[in-house]
## 1
Amino acid sequence: MTSKKRTVVLLSGGLDSATALAVALAEGFEVYAMSFRYGQRHAVELESARRIAEAYALEKHLVVDIDLRAIGGSALTDQIEVPKRRSSLEMSSAIPVTYVPARNTIFLSFALAWAERLSAQDIFIGVNALDYSGYPDCRPEYIEAFENMANLATREGVEGRMRLKINTPLIAMTKAEIIKTGIKLGVDYSLTHSCYDPGVDGLACGRCDSCLLRLRGFAEAGTADPLRYAGG
C-alpha cells in the first residue's frame, strides 16, 4: 500500500484557507497545517484554525509565533483603523492599509522550511486574485516567482530530490465559486472566521473588507453565511 503524498497547507482559519485545505484532502494529500500568531488584531482566527484542524483530524497542526507588530505598517498589526463599509470600487482602487508587509512571503518561507523537513513536494495556499483586497502577494506572478525561488533555495531542490509546487486552487475563482466548491467538499463554514476587526466577544463586524467580500460571496452563491455577526 503506497503512502499518501504530504503537503503543508497554510491555514489561517478563514474561508479561503479552509477551502484550500479541503481541496488538498480531496486530492489525496496527507495534510500538515501551519498557522501563524503574528500579532494580528483578529487572533480569534487561530481558534477557527484549531477547530478546522480538529474537525479534519489532520496529521499535525503547527502554530508558529512571529510578532509582526514590531514592524507594523498595517491595520492588522498596528494602531491603524480598519476601513469599513467600502465599495467594491474602493477596495480595488489601491492596496489597502490591511496589507501586512511581505506577509505571504514570510508565511510561505516557513511553510517551505517545514515542507523540506517533511519531504513534502507541495504547499497549498488559499490566495485569490479576483475577489480580494488588492494584495500584491496574492497574484499568480508572485506565486510563480516564489516557487522558482523555493527550488533554488533548498537543499532538496538544488540536489534534484524534490521539485516543490505552490498550489493555489482558488486563485482564479470568485468568492461565490470558492464557497460553492467548499460546500461540495463538505466544508463547515461555521468553523471559519474572516473578520479583520472582531469585537471583544469575537463576533465578526460585518463591515470590514473581508466581511463584506465574504457576505457578498455567500449571497452570490445563493446560500446563507453560517457565521455570527455583531448585531445579527
## 2
Amino acid sequence: MNTKLLIPAIAAVLCALPFLGLDSYQLHLIIMILIWSFVYTSWSIMGRFGLVSLGHGAFMAMGGYVTALAWNELGISPWLSVPGAMILAGALALLIGYPCFRFRITGHYFALVTLALAEVVRQVLVATRDTTGGALGYTPESHGAGGSLYALQSDDRLIFYFVALIVWIIGILIWRAVDQSMSYYALEAISEDEDASAAVGVQVTKEKLKVTVLSAMMTAFAGALYCQYQMFISPSTIGGIGLSLQIVFGVVVGGIYSTLGPTIGAVITLMLAEFLRIWMGTGVVCITEKVCLNLAGMPLFVYGIMLVLFIIFLPKGIAGACADQWLAFKSNRKVNT
C-alpha cells in the first residue's frame, strides 16, 4: 500500500481536528496517541530487524526522570536536559548493546538482557525514593500559571497537540530516512544471516549499534515529552517491564514492518486501555454482593492474549494484513483486465 499520499492526508486531517469542536478529553486522548505512536515507531525502527528489545521502558524512564530531576534539583531548562537525557540513553544502549552484539548474544537472549535492564532501572527508581519519589511518582515543579517556554510547560493542550503532531511526523521521517539508507540493506541482510553478512563485508556490530542507539535516543525523547505534558511520572507509567511489553504489543498489533503500523498500534492500545479503565473503574468488579474480583492486572492480561492471537493469525499486524489485501486486489484487477 502506497503511503506517500496517505501520511500527508492523515497529517492534514490531524491539523484540522482541533478546530472541529473537540473537547478537552478528546484532545488529550489524541495527544497521548501521537506521543505513544512516536514511542512505538522508535521501537519498531530496531525491532523490525530482529532486534527485539523488552527494555525500552528503561530508556523512556531515563528521558522523563533526567528531565524532571534536572529541572527540580538543578534548575536546568528542558531545552538542555532533554538532549542530555537522549545522550545518556544512547550511552546506556551502547553499554548494553556492544557486548551483546560483539559476542553474538541475539534472539531471545538479547530480549532477556533488555528485560533485565528495564527491571533494574525500575528498581533503582523505586529504591531512590528520597530523590525520585519511588513508586509514588515524581512531579516537575511548575514554572508558573499559564506555562513557560523556558520550562517547556503549558496549560494549553492545543499547544501540546501540535507539538505532539510535529513529533509524530518527525518519527515517520526518521523511519523513512532509515529505509532509504544503506544501513537498511545491511540490517536486512544481518537479520537473515549474520555470518553471511559479515563475510561480504557488512560491519554487523556497528550497524546493530547504530539503529539501537537511535531507537534508545528517540524513546528517551518521548519520555521527556510525556513528562512535560503529563507533569507527573512514575516507574509504572513511564518505565518497567509492563510498559516495555505494552510497546511490543502495540507494534505487533499495528504492524512492525509498516510505516503506519506503530500509529495503528497506538490507537488500538490507547483506546483499549481507556475502555478497560472505564469498564473496570477502581479495578474491583463485583459479581454478587459477596463475590468481588480484583482485576487490577486485567490490561496486561488482555494485552498478552491479544499478542499471542496476533502473532499466530496476523504476524504482520493490521497494517501488514491491509497491505497484503491491497496487493492481492491489484493483482486480481490486472489479471481481470
